[in-house]
Structures are given as C-alpha cells and as structure tokens.
Amino acid sequence: MTVTIYDVAREAGVSMATVSRVVNNNPNVKPQTRKKVFEAIERLGYRPNAVARGLASKKTTTVGVVIPDISNAIFAEVARGIEDIANMYHYNIILCNADKKKDKEIRVINTLLEKQVDGLLFMGGAVTDEHLQAFKTANVPIVLCATTDEQGLIPSVDIDHEAAAYDAVQALLKQGHTRIAMISGTLQDPSIGFARFQGYKRALESAGITYDENLVRIGNYRYESGSEAMKYFLDLSDRPSAVFSATDEMAIGAIHQIQDSGLKVPQDVSIISVDNSRMASMVRPQLTAVAQPMYDIGAVSMRLLTKLMKKETVDHAKVVLPHEIVTRQSVSAI
User: What positions does the domain HTH lacI-type occupy (predicted)?
Assistant: First the structure.
C-alpha cells in the first residue's frame, strides 16, 4: 500500500504539519525532530506526492522541453545545458521528441501544458502561426531555444544564423574561392534554413559574385542529403571549388561523397559548415565550421525561463549569442 504523510507522522510521533515542514525544507524544525522524521521516511520508504504538492502550491517545479530530433548531437548538447541550469534551480525536466513534424510539435506543446508544467522551452524548427496560437493558450512562460519567431513576440535565445552563414562564405572567399556551392536546409524555416541561405547569398553579393541557383541544393539537415547534393555538384561540367553546408552532418556526407569519387578534401573541394558538433573533429579531414555555442544556448534559455517563471526583471527577452569559426583541415586556398 502507498505510504502517506499520515503514516510518517505516526511513525515519527509528530504531527503531519511537522512532516510537511521537514519535506519542504522549512527551517523552523528542531534538528532532532528533523532527524526523527527523516529516519521514519527512510524506514517506511515514503515519497512525497509531487502532484498533490503541485495542486497545493500551484507549482509543479517542472519544465517542458520540446526537442526536434533527440538523435541529433547538436540538440543533445542544448538539452545538457538546459538540464544543468534546471538542476541548479531545482526544476525537473520533461523532454519530448517531436521528430521535426509540426503536427507532433503542436500536440506535444498542448500535452505539456496539460501536465501543468511551470514553463516551456521550444527548441528548434520554424515557429508558425499554429505554434503561436498554441503558445497563446498557455498561462505559463515560454522561451524559444535555438530558434526565433519572425515577429519577435516570444522570448528567445539563439545565434544570428544569417551572420554565421555570411562569415562562413567569407572565409571561403578569403581563400580565393569564387565558385562556391551551398547545401541548404529547408527554406520554409525562416529562422534557420532561410536565414543561412540569405547569409550565403549576401556574402556572394558583397564579393560581386552573381548568385547561381545551380549551385544550391536543398537538403534535410541529414547525412544522406549532403551526400546526394555533393554528387550533383560533382557531376556539373564546372564543379564548385568549395561548398558551404548548412549543417555538419550534411557536410560530412559531402566529404564522404567527394572521397568516394576519388577526389580529396580540401585539395579538390573545400568544405565549411555551421554547427561545430563533436562530429566535426571526428571526420577526416577535420571539418572547419562555424561554432554555435549549443550548451550555452540551452543554459541561457533555461536561465531566462527561470527568471520569467519567478517574475524577475528581464533586461533582454531576445538574446543573440556570439558565434565563431573553428579552423581545421577541410578548407584550403585555391
């Protein structure tokens, strides 16, 4: 049978109110009494009822996190940052995978809100009108993590994706490359996919290079699409000397396709990407990449959410973290 607070009180020879104060770390309990209650809790195997406590305090000390792809190392790093700060502020995490599907994202958001979470972190993916409508029905704070909404209505933490892409292409231009291809993510994602595409175009324009749609292929952020895009580029009569990939995973697919074709990176084709996941230093040659501070994005997002949940003053509801280029061996001068 379930052990109740009444059972603990009877075992310890104290009132239920005293047990409640001990469980909730109230300082107004004598050390000897506190020790006696904890001994009774241990003997009986009592676990406080979090649901009941939440109903009484109207707080569950639980935060819902919507993650787009739990198998992606990038999002795992963000989740680590979220969890570390959540633990620091004594919040529990409910992590839900949404498989980058809008319908599932909306369903997961509503499910988490029904679970009476104290706050919600929405990670990655395009924020559509349907998302905004779901957010409007929430009576708890929401922070966008590693993404933003176009109107800037929801507090968010991210990098400047257009600037990151611009800097990546600039790095190739400085090495003398002028025929630069791009393996892009979906352009239907304004905050990440389209933003990185715009950064690519802007860098070319700044160098006086005419945009060529034949040098852009749309991928799905995964390895296979990077490999397929690179095969297309290699089959061109005038193949590119360098490729900018919107993600490390697609870049690695491109590197392997180049190598499978009997060519070398960077001697025949230079490759640069955005992410700087652990895979970037595992592939050979090691991948030059624009580093997103993924752990920091998660940590800062969770800290921002704690401030909103506690109704503390927030100076900046839209936080843009810096990025940097990590130079390795996949880019060389032409």
Answer: 3-57
